[in-house]
User: Fold this.
Amino acid sequence: MEASGEQFLRSKFQTNGIRIGHKLSDLLSRYVESMEFFFLATADRAGNCDCSFRGGVPCVKVLDDTTLIFPDYPGNGAFQSLGNIVENPHVGMLFIDFTHQQRLRINGQAELLDDPELCALFPGSIQVVKVFVEQVYRNCSARIPKLTKQ
Assistant:
């Protein structure tokens, strides 16, 4: 069996990789819910990628240790990222806290929902994205610029 790209590079640079979890702990749930923004990575069925900024307060609501939702607010109407989810449910979410120089990544499977009860959690949203968490991991904090709130 051929090594994955990750395995190949870990071997080449003699690293062990990082610990990957599959659930959101209480601490990580609170962290995610405290964030004001994150970056969303998606790809269409052909693998063409898109990355978008998602923000607002609240930005994310954790439903349980393997499920979270975030709102879709009216924007430019292009639906590039969310259109990708319709074709390919794999998503990546990157949360960066510049004040404390921390970051967290969540990978999972997403679906779009227009459930009025879920949309009501995010006033003004037109739908929500529900993510079933598959991987959760903290990233190295090196090279995150430290910003102070003013």
